[in-house]
Amino acid sequence: MLQTLQKEFAEVLDVPGYLPCISIVMPFDPKMNLHTELAHKLKIAVSKIEVELRSNYPEDKLKPVLEKLKRVINNLYYDTHKKTIAIFVSPLVEKIYYLDIPVEEKVIIDDSFEIRDLIYSKKQIHKFLLVELNSKWTKIYMGNGTQFIKVVSNRPANVAAYQNDIPEQTGNFSDRNKRKEVMLDKFLQHTDNGLGLLLQAYDLPLFVMGTERTVGHFKKITRHADRVVRYIPGNYEHKTEAELWELMSPFIADWKTIMQADLLKQINSAADHKKLVTGINEVWKAAAKKRGRLLIVEKNYIHPAQHGAVPEIIYSNSELLDRPFFIKDAVDDIIEKVLANGGDVEFVDEGFLQAYNKIALIEYYESI
């Protein structure tokens, strides 16, 4: 019986031009915007959609999807802390996602849905963390693409705060030097602990700049070397924030390279914590169990599959044969599962995940 229903459903979907499918992806933050403003933007989007539908579909085909879209929008949940809303509507389907990923507004009318369009709509916000080290103090900044924001920490930012934790120096010159080295290491250790809390809260690419001596000490004690995208050697003690921003510009010019380098470091860190899942079958299983924090997948990777006897199991191409319940693209279904359960998704260049069978999932875990 189930096979018969699925066959009939597939036949409906295959009728040329049968389904006008509407996708709306829009920033949606009621805590930051007035309810009326969001409602007005959605009303304008619906008006544009109606004009295009009437230009391309007959009344009997556009009417059901238009009525469903209006009903969905009228019943949206505005009491949310999410940043984005994604609406997918056709005569047969309606899906609404409230998501944490920032997006550019996009409206698509087509004869099918592409969950990947939601990922392609993500804003490429150039956010990163910069740690400026020297032998006296530490400053940490968050860059957002246009400016620095100094991060306030509850940990001492000056090495002098730790001098009472070190035994009193003697008159010996070598002992005094050793004391300075110990103080610096202790100071940098506390800096690194604070940095760990920041990386837990802001999962961003990390840059570290400072003199060779200070950076050398930092490399020896840090627990977050796997998150540093680049070390920038030099003495920047007297640089203004504007001058630091100018120094950073060449390093963030190719943002895609920076992001992919950071993603690789996140993959390696997750593997060290035994929280990395790779390969389509294992990733499907983890996503079905709602364990996915970050899905990383090669763009254009498509994997037809078939459901197994339980939701956590799928069968790949070579195992399809006479099994029912065909999945057009398991990758799209995984993307949908990860997003619906509060995770994020990033596409990378083809070949980037060659060692991981084109797809990798980082599970939720505490990294500090």
Task: Give an overview in words.
By secondary structure, the chain is an alpha+beta fold. Helices cover 39% and strands 21% of the residues. It has ten helices and 16 strands. Helix 6 links the parallel strand 8 (206-210) and strand 9.
Per-chain topology:
Elements: H1 2-13, E1 21-27, H2 35-56, H3 59-74, E2 84-89, E3 94-99, E4 106-110, H4 116-120, E5 128-133, E6 138-143, E7 148-150, H5 173-201, E8 206-210, H6 212-221, E9 228-233, H7 241-252, H8 255-272, E10 276-278, H9 280-288, E11 292-298, E12 305-307, E13 314-315, E14 326-327, H10 330-340, E15 344-348, E16 359-363
Parallel strand pairs: 5-8, 8-9, 11-15
Antiparallel strand pairs: 1-2, 1-4, 2-3, 5-6, 6-7, 10-16, 11-16, 12-13, 12-14
Helix pairs in contact: 2-3, 5-6, 9-10
Main sheet characteristics: 5 strands, mixed
Strand content: 15-25%
**Biggest sheet: strand arrangement:** 7-6-5-8-9
The global form is elongated
Give me the secondary-structure category.
Answer: alpha+beta
Tell me, rounded to a whole number, the average pLDDT. 81
Kindly, what is the distance between the CA atoms of the first and last residues, rounded to a whole number of angstroms?
Answer: 51 Å
Radius of gyration: 26 Å
Total strands: the figure is: 16
The low-pLDDT segments are 1-17, 320-324
Q: Level of helix content?
A: 25-40%
- Give the SSE order as H and E letters: HEHHEEEHEEEHEHEHHEHEEEEHEE
How many helices does DSSP assign?
10
